[in-house]
């Protein structure tokens, strides 16, 4: 017999997959537009984000996904892993801000199509990371308040999506 909790978890998981797949369309549109602009312009050479910063950002996002994998497999001590995920996602947001400031200066004035493309695509991704951090905080608060295991499955699907997107963005802007 299926319990109400199992039905709610299944519904949340299905809803997360629907969101992820529909949101992927937005990222595909952004990245394909940027690819088309990049092929038509030499101006993209002017924005060169730091590979070192990109690698650190990648490690932080991998840390979030890894913490959720561990949290999903543990029976009781979920909160340290959720807290680690929150910390790594906040670290990613701070690192992204630092990179914007380093690339654009303190005035944050965009001076080239390459900078505009970088800020639009990574900014859209940054919104997803910030939303994921809030979702992790919500799950952590829920877990701490009533002691029940947080719904890690839907969060894991979302974060793996955000990580996969970052790998594409990383390749597009940092490696090419």
Order of helices and strands: HHHHH
Can you summarize the main beta sheet?
A: none
The secondary structure category is: mainly alpha
Q: Report how far the terminal alpha carbons are from each other.
A: 52 Å
How would you describe the shape? elongated
Q: What percentage of the residues does DSSP assign to strands (E)?
A: under 5%
Give the beta-strand count.
0
* Rg: 18 Å
Question: Can you offer a commentary on this structure?
Answer:
By secondary structure, this protein is an all-alpha fold. The protein contains five helices and no strands. Helix 1 (4-40) runs parallel beside helix 5, helix 2 (51-73) runs antiparallel to helix 3 and helix 2 packs antiparallel against helix 5 (152-175). The longest helix has 37 residues, at 4-40. The mean pLDDT is 84.
How are the SSEs ordered, and which strands pair?
Layout: H1 4-40, H2 51-73, H3 79-104, H4 113-146, H5 152-175
In short:
This protein is mainly α. The chain has helices at residues 4-40, 51-73, 79-104, 113-146, 152-175.
